[in-house]
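[Protein data]
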Amino acid sequence: MITVPATTGPEAFVHPALFYEDLAEYVSGVGGFVRAALSADEPVLVAVPGPHLDALRESLGASGTDVVWTDMTELGRNPGRILAALQDFADRHAGRAARIVGEPIWPGRSPAEVLEATRHEALINSAFTGRTATILCPYDVRGLASSVVADARRTHPTLLEGGRELLSAAYTDASVVSADCDRPLPEPDGEVLRLDYSRGELAEVRAHAERWARGTALTAARRGDLVLAVSEAAANSLAHGGGKGTLRLWTSTGPGAEVVAEIRDGGRLGDPLAGRRRPALASAQGGRGLWMIHQLCDLVEVRATDGGFTLRLHMATP
């Protein structure tokens, strides 16, 4: 069984990737990590996809009652929501060495989801700097594309592979990985509705999005969520993106049917963690709009390039 490295000092952060080939290896590696944490009386959060959650619970039996269990397919459907949940758990146990299992990428994830989850994995290293925590991230080396596994080597300083603990020679600074995730977004195939807006036209943006959303398959509640997310994104454009922007709206059909809203402006993303960390209640700035957008949408694609700032918001339809 692989022994997962633990934190080694009062401000130590450990972020290993566990490469596994089958369920037995998964349960052995992750289960061993959890058992070691429980033996040390350390708080444990396990956020993994449902089937893995069930297997781990069964293997731990009664000892797993002290673990906080979370289905990552729900928490991490939008990868932009994961980081705040991990930080919230660590904050609730300030002064103790938090142990977390986070599996944000699994077979079946869409390419867009994988890219944003990879960005999340890189940003963990910035967000947890100076904090006492270990975040173990399992990767299915048989079920995932080789490029995904290669990116895991870039986002994790330590690798657990083939029964050995290794330093990752490919480990890369979070800012570099995040910039590499800013790949061009694919153009929609079908009809696109476009609206250019500027200062003083936020109400028009809301009304435009609301009228269009009524013609989609979204429920009334989800239509309201979409309009609110679009409004927050447009408000950011007017305040921080040069005072103007472009809204595009379209739908996709098929097994992954969804509604998509895209906002482009001339802004910059000063803090790559904006929207991924829970903003302070007393703060008048610091990504409150982006935070809300991440909470409302099933996927948020972020692109921050020299050409400007783009948010592509996805909501699944029934």
User: Anything to note?
Assistant: Residues 193-316 form a domain with the Heat Shock Protein 90 fold (CATH 3.30.565.10). The chain is about 35% helix and 25% strand. Residues 233 and 283 are 18 Å apart (CA to CA). The chain has two domains: 13-180, 193-316.
